[in-house]
Amino acid sequence: MLLHCNVAEQLARVGHEVTVIGIIDNVYPNATYKYIHLQLPDGGILDDNALRSVINTRHSLVKSLIVTTGEYMRMANETMWQPTMREFLRENRANSFDLLLFGFVMNEFQLGLAAHFQCPIVVLWVVRPVLQVNRFVGNPLEMAYVPNLSSHLQQPFNFLQRVNNYVTAWMEFALMAYLDYRTQQLYDYNFPPDRYPPFEDVRQNVSLIFTNHHFSQGPIRPNVPNLIEIGGIQIKEKPDPLPADIAKILDEAKEGAIYFSLGSNIQGSHLTEEKVKIMFNVISKLPYKVLWKWGPNDRPGQSENIIYRDWLPQDDILAHPNIKLFITHGGMGSVVEAQYHGVPMVGIPLFGDQPSNMANVQRSGYGLAVDYITLSEESLNNAIQEVLTNPKYTNTVQEFSRLYRDRPMTPRQTVVYWVEYVLRHKGAKHMQSPAVHMNRWQLMSLDVIGFLWAIFAGVVLVCAIVFRLLCGEKKDKKEVKVEKTKQK
């Protein structure tokens, strides 16, 4: 929600009337936009049992994706039938809104809302583009040198890495086929075909994508004009003042302090007692003050160096000069904020894009990742001590910070410009790639290759038949000639 609410807030501040609908509490209580909170039975988070299973069991990538995407689809469907949402849709119909800003998290069927309001769509995506997002705008598929999110590869590729990337891409295609089937079912259920256009027509109505990414993070790849990078939009250009107690702790931490957060979705109850104890035992022995984001219940233990809070202003804390290390789950928002402020990381990735994000952090030299499933006091302590004592991690991430900040426009200025561009040009259809209207076989020219091979095979076959006929005719003539010679 940080990405989506930041986009909404920037638009509201320049005079647009913006309504945000979400299933969690508004992340900005004093926001300029209007916020509608949809109360779901489970509180608007992933099912606890499903989340525990994904985090604490080493599933295959495909199984993890199926479990998490299934949960996201379930929540999205519940959202459509929530009473406040039903009333909102009854009161607002065609031309009620000029634009749909669509937060995409495996809820593709909800693009039908744009058909309901009869307006163009701008998609918001929280990490670098993946296959399903690229499809919205026809972004090219470059399997030979652009790593898939699930392959964890780094450019450039050798031959075996290209094979790996190719295979994982086709695995993602197979998963997309399953998701397309479920998406079509949910679309037909929520947007009946007698009142709404076909889903494929709705999907082709996407005008533009904002992705929370910047090319300096890699991988380097070509993008179509209507895929716009706004990486770091949630980061304030000037940090807000910290709460007095937190400011005092950090200001007095002359030797430095550590910030520890596993994100907004993970609760202590999602982790095993063994893993929580390992984290506490390591962190409680560090000679630094540690700000640990943890819920008010079931805190791991008491230690003089640990300060627990159930909420902390992460961006403002990471901006403090005395923060020496960020222990993180590796969510893209957290990684970006650490990179922007030049803070090295130790990551404990749990699910989703987090392992890929932390693999990139480690390869780039911004920190180290430790495996949650095999986590031990030794592995966690070794990673923390290495990053704290070896200056190369701080130097590398601070050098990257200078690259990341160097842009012609800030992400917030970029958002305002391109949203207003889409509005000015009534959906900006002139930016849409022809690839949006082509299927995968056409995009990979498999039909052309098949056609040319058919022609080649046909020519070879004809030549073979002609050659055989000619050879057969010569043989017949030779046999006739031999027969006549014998008769003489």
UniProtKB/TrEMBL annotation:
As one GO molecular function, the record gives: UDP-glycosyltransferase activity
Q: Which residues cross the membrane?
A: 448-471
**Which InterPro entries does the record cross-reference, listed alphabetically?**
UDP-glycosyltransferase, UDP_glucos_trans
**SUPFAM superfamilies registered for this protein in UniProt:** UDP-Glycosyltransferase/glycogen phosphorylase
Q: Which UniProt keywords apply?
A: Glycosyltransferase, Membrane, Transferase, Transmembrane, Transmembrane helix
Q: Which family does it belong to?
A: Belongs to the UDP-glycosyltransferase family.
This protein's name: UDP-glucuronosyltransferase 2A3
Source organism of this protein record: Zeugodacus cucurbitae
